[in-house]
Amino acid sequence: MIYVGMLYKLAISLWAGGNAIFSLLLTPILFKTEGRDTAARIVGNLFPAYFRWGLACGVIALVCRLAGRGLDAKLPVLVLICMLAVTSFQAFYVEPHAAELKRQIGSFEATTKEHPLRKEFSKLHGVSAVCNLTVLAGGVLLVVLP
Which residues contact 92 (CB under 8 A, 6 or more apart)? Predict the structure, then answer.
């Protein structure tokens, strides 16, 4: 059972760590060093794998948590389920809609911020940012919880 607990912590750490590196380091660097359209294309190409990574780590963590400790502590299980739900929402709703909006916009550099599609994209981007920070906070919480 010790290995199940280790795999649980590893899955949570890889999920939260990947989220932190992507959201707090990689994406800001790309948008600072590249043109907006280039950075958006790169990040957009990474998103499907990023969300699959989160879902895989989350499922592994949930299975390990349930196999190793059952429902003896409900809070970690509830946090994991919430994180998986948020990541699923991002993967299957937010990302496909954002990708379609980006396709319709064509160029962020050539399209004004007042354009209706840009406004819609901005709202979706805000939702995505809140989702990402929620998953990161949940991951940090699970790393410190027993």
Answer: none
pLDDT tens for the chain, residues 1 to 146: 789 999 999 999 999 999 999 999 999 999 999 999 999 999 999 999 999 999 999 999 999 999 988 777 799 999 999 999 999 999 999 999 999 999 999 999 999 999 999 999 999 999 999 999 999 999 999 999 87
DSSP class of residue 108?
A: T
Task: Report the predicted TM-score, pTM, of the whole model to 2 decimal places.
Answer: 0.93
CA distance 106 to 102: 6
| CA pair distance 69, 79, nearest whole angstrom | 15
Alpha-carbon distances of 83 from 16, 90, 114, 137, rounded to whole Å:
10, 11, 33, 9
